[in-house]
Amino acid sequence: MESLRITDGAPGLTALVGRATGLDASASARFQSLDADAPAVDVYVTTPFDCIASRRVSGEASRDGAVVAASDLLAALQAGRAEVGAARDPNWPGALPPREGFTVRDEVPVSVARQLADKGRELARQFSGPMGPPKSLLDSTVLTADAESASPVEIPMRMIFTCTSLGFIPGFAAPIDIPRHLRVSTAGRWVRLDAPFGSVYHSTGLGLFV
């Protein structure tokens, strides 16, 4: 039985895991313990958009790299239990992004991301089939960060969809002290979007989990 003992950040993690299981009832969650002055854990969840998402909490996991069913984690969080279910390590589809080495490349107003997501959802309603939005729409580049550099960063619609579907982008009524931008970072083949309420990762070139 795996455990996650949280001292701060439980409400935000509960919101993330709840949305992740709403998108995919079979979603998995994975814990990455951080070396810091105070114990902390990055909790990653899978999504149906070929992206993974994470949120950081203060506390300790039973084991670095442990994987559990997101539905089990959600039930434990809602009940206030530290025990979060049986280990399901084989269910995780690949490696996690690197712990370190990300370089900030650009910042994008959340209003731009919100507009892109609204447009994407409209297109998805028009062209989606039984399996959801078409791959061509998810793969389409909707934003180019650090555009003037020698290696601009292309942001696909799937990353924007993930941010909005998981509630990472604040609404208009959010408190004034909540940041109003997305930070774009890269590390090798990984692209990361840091939003006010969580981070989204996508791997370029080789596919997410290769």
UniProtKB/TrEMBL annotation:
UniProt cross-references to InterPro entries, sorted A to Z: DUF8010, DUF8185, UCP012637
Pfam families cross-referenced by the UniProt entry: DUF8010, DUF8185
Residue ranges annotated for the DUF8010 domain, each copy included: 4-94
Transmembrane region(s): none
Boundaries of every DUF8185 domain copy: 97-205
Listed name of the protein: Carboxyltransferase domain-containing protein
Organism: Corynebacterium hadale
